[in-house]
Amino acid sequence: MLVAQVPRCTQGSEAAVHAARGICLPDFRTQCREKTVALNPSMLAAGMRVPPPTATNYQTNNTLSRLHSSIRSCTRCEELVRCRSRVVPGEGSVPADVLFLGIAPGRLGGDRTGIPFSGDRSGQLLRRMIERSGLERVFITNLVRCNPRDAGGRNRDPTHTEIANCRDHLRAEFALVRPRIVACLGRLAWQELVGRLIPFVPRQARPMERDGALLFPMYHPAFVNRGAYPLRLYARDFARLSRLSAGALRLPRG
Ligand code: URA
């Protein structure tokens, strides 16, 4: 099981009912483990919104920064330790409505900035689409948190072993962020969560439920940037994702 769900409210039977629906009543706010995370300067630089400071924000921030510290000290992949400039943990709202799952930080992007999907064309496109579609509480992360390079110094896909080595970090992020929807950016991300038997068809995306979260297949922004998929359809897909997140999109019968 990859998508770990932690109850939002921790005490009381009414709270438990609402937790099952993913709702926190005002009365139970102090018992909720985490609300929207206070953003750090790197997130501000990436244009993310700043929530008001609260005790729960502080707690969440602490939890996220503890997770970040443990991820940043990872040395599981010898080759990635050699070629990475830095480790790039996921960033965004905690909890989040939508978690975007990419592949690995890019050489010109996250590997330089320390923030997933920032500083390069993929990041620009993804963030523009998120902004335009009106999605707000999002978390952005990758299958692998270090930049994989080939012998010529170019970006390459992570190997199965590298993805497996990073799986615990992804699980920990899922457990903290508890996304309602996971937008899988590219086939590798989709296959990691649903396996190889279910085809990756973002053009007619059929969201799938797994472990309490909806998985939504989308093309990777790099695919769109190189002209392999029209921007107009990509914007339509984001609008669909946004309607799904708002509960306004009916799921096809599976
Ligand atoms: N930047 C990321 O963080 N992930 C990708 O998959 C591509 C670019």
Q: What's the main sheet like? A: 6 strands, mixed
- Measured as a percent range, the helix fraction is 25-40%
* CATH architecture designation: 3-Layer(aba) Sandwich
Write down the Rg: 18 Å
Question: Helices and strands in order, then pairings?
Answer:
Elements lengths: L12 H9 L19 H5 L9 H18 L5 H6 L7 E2 L5 E5 L7 H4 L7 H13 L4 E5 L17 H6 L1 H11 L3 E5 L1 H8 L13 E3 L2 E6 L2 H5 L5 H15 L9
Parallel strand pairs: 2-3, 2-4, 4-6
Antiparallel strand pairs: 1-3, 5-6
Helix pairs in contact: 3-8, 6-11
Q: In brief, what are we looking at here?
A:
The chain is α/β, with parallel strands linked by helices and 254 residues long. The protein has helices spanning 13-21, 41-45, 55-72, 78-83, 110-113, 121-133, 160-165, 167-177, 187-194, 221-225, 231-245; strands spanning 91-92, 98-102, 138-142, 181-185, 208-210, 213-218.
Can you tag this structure with a few keywords?
254 residues, alpha/beta, Uracil-DNA Glycosylase, subunit E, six-stranded mixed β-sheet, 39% helix, disordered N terminus, binds uracil
Architecture overview:
39% of the residues lie in helices and 10% in strands. The protein is of the alpha/beta class and 254 residues long. The chain has a single domain (34-245), classed as 3-Layer(aba) Sandwich (Uracil-DNA Glycosylase, subunit E). A six-stranded mixed beta sheet has the order 1-3-2-4-6-5, with helices on both faces. Residues 1-41 have low confidence and may be disordered. Bound molecules: uracil (URA).
